[in-house]
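Researcher: Here's a chain I'd like modeled. Treat it as a single chain, no partners, no ligands.
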Amino acid sequence: MGCEEKTVSERKPETLQITIDELKTLPEEVRVLVDTRGETSFAYGSLPGARTLTGLMEQAQMEQLDRAPLYVLFSMHGRTSLQQAQELRNLGYRAASLQGGYGAWLGQCYATEDKTEEIEKGLRSKRAFHDKLFVPFARAVRDYELLSPNDQVAVCISGGKDSMLMAKLFQELHRHHRFEFGLTFLVMDPGYDPVNRMLIEQNAKMMGVPITVFETGIFDAVYEIPKSPCYLCARMRRGYLYAKAKELGCNKIALGHHYDDVIETILMGMLWSGQTQTMMPKLHSTNFEGMELIRPMYYIREEDIIDWRNRSGLHFIQCACRFTETCSATREDGTSASKRMETKQLIRMLRKSNPGVESNIFNSMKNVNLRTVLAYKKDGEVHSFLDDY
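Model: Modeled as a single isolated chain. Structure tokens:
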């Protein structure tokens, strides 16, 4: 559980909810932990020993589940899992919802000791972390010329594993880089609920990242949007980050998109949007003069970030949206997480027969032959192969 468990006799909950303290009294052999938030959120972190809900209800309806254990369901805040626990009970199974959900477990059970020295030592000396995290980070900075002398960089932290790792890698780079540049670790609160805000601040303190937090009313602004509120929310957050960074004297904002984000975006564009494009390592802002966006984690694999998180004993939020128990429908960049997960699974399947498929997708954006494309766009203007045929 991540918290110390007490081995005492089994108890049957009288109500549909079970508290964290009550859960700790249940031996592992008499209960099954079920994460109802979906595979995307589950991959970002969950209670130790938990499984996902995928297929659970179908198995229950088909009488394929063991009826002996108590099924303890949890969502982010314990609301949607309450309904699902009731559905399981209606099918004759013993089920309960974890009161307060995953967020409450993190707040109560997650260690708050200072891990700064341990994490920084790992990034310097542990081959698995140094070679797979810091080296590709520094290489992307060099290859794409992401930093210049006297740059002031706003390192944008959402609270997830990617942006928190990016903050630590920037701190490490700052100690050893050949020229001076400044760092501001920027956290925007668009209207987080108290649990999510607390987790971000707690992780930052534990990891030695001095964050600057500013608040906006973005969640309130998009609350009444019936369609695609997440796309609008993502655009508004990007704008607020640019504006605040510029106000603080920064000329660049850094986002934590990694290698897998890049190749998934390439494939998603082809499969779902009928276009060939990628997530660029750096971009000039079109609305904020003199500002630039950089992505220094461009070469880092997500599996290596997950390994670092797990081996460091860290827990991060995936989505801090207060409107949904899970962000399985959307991502921070406004894309559909269901489509992204589908694309991720497709790449994983293709890798079984073609181990080089990921690098091939990535390299395809560097090997475009304009003589073999029907048309391309530049600065909004369409150019056809017929123009100089």
